UniProtKB/TrEMBL annotation:
This is Lipoprotein. It comes from the Bacteria.
């Protein structure tokens, strides 16, 4: 088994621009966020930490993403979702990270979110809980890396834990079946149960997803193998 390649985490000018990295997803997959997270969403999920991100997923990365050891999801539900993915489907991920004290709370309502791509609702959705290791900074947290990673060879079948502190996230892996993307700009909309709307966009050129370039980045993103020595 090959070890996944991770990009080092970097911080941008705004908290909402934090780049999240995990197997099958790198910074080139991130969608451009057009709206800030609404206050009532952050307040609902806790004051310690809240952020929303979205990613465009290439089909060749689906296996890595669905079989990430950090996913908390029933195996049969995951396998059913994976079997129904066709080559002409569009796959996006909406990720919401929130106060870990809310992780086991009955108030979580991510299953009630609606998602639209170019004003078309998703066909199927696999909701998984995902855990990142975190470092506490005063009264808040900063995400570092996935909580569980494969060990280095020759023990790569073992899974190791990267931290005792963690941030909980919900990932909605969305399948827009047989949807033809627009040449140029495409709009992705998230509608929450509190009627908040979070908008993203991305560009398609000659049928190929164009990575979003954040001109306001404070630091460059470097590529390195993980786990680190």
């Amino acid at each position: 088994m090959k070890l996944p390649i991770y990009l080092t985490i970097c911080f941008f000018a705004s908290c909402s621009s934090l780049t999240i990295i995990s197997p099958g997803i790198n910074s080139n997959h991130r969608l451009n966020k057009l709206t800030d997270v609404k206050f009532n969403e952050a307040a609902f999920y806790g004051s310690t930490f809240y952020q929303a991100n979205a990613f465009f997923i290439n089909h060749q990365n689906i296996y890595e993403i669905l079989n990430d050891p950090n996913n908390i999801v029933e195996k049969n539900i995951k396998e059913k979702f994976e079997k129904n993915i066709k080559n002409n489907d569009v796959i996006l991920i909406a990720e919401f990270c929130f106060d870990k004290d809310k992780f086991n709370s009955s108030i979580l309502d991510f299953d009630q979110y609606n998602f639209k791509l170019n004003n078309t609702s998703f066909s199927t959705n696999l909701e998984v809980f995902y855990l990142y290791s975190a470092k506490k900074k005063g009264t808040s947290y900063a995400i570092e890396q996935p909580l569980l990673v494969y060990d280095k060879p020759p023990n790569q079948k073992n899974i190791i834990k990267t931290s005792f502190e963690f941030i909980a996230c919900s990932r909605s892996i969305l399948n827009f079946k047989n949807l033809k993307l627009s040449e140029g700009s495409n709009k992705f909309e998230i509608i929450t149960p509190r009627s908040s709307q979070i908008f993203f966009d991305f560009n398609i050129k000659n049928g190929i997803f164009q990575p979003f370039q954040d001109e306001g980045a404070d630091l460059k993103i470097g590529i390195s193998p993980y786990p680190k020595n």
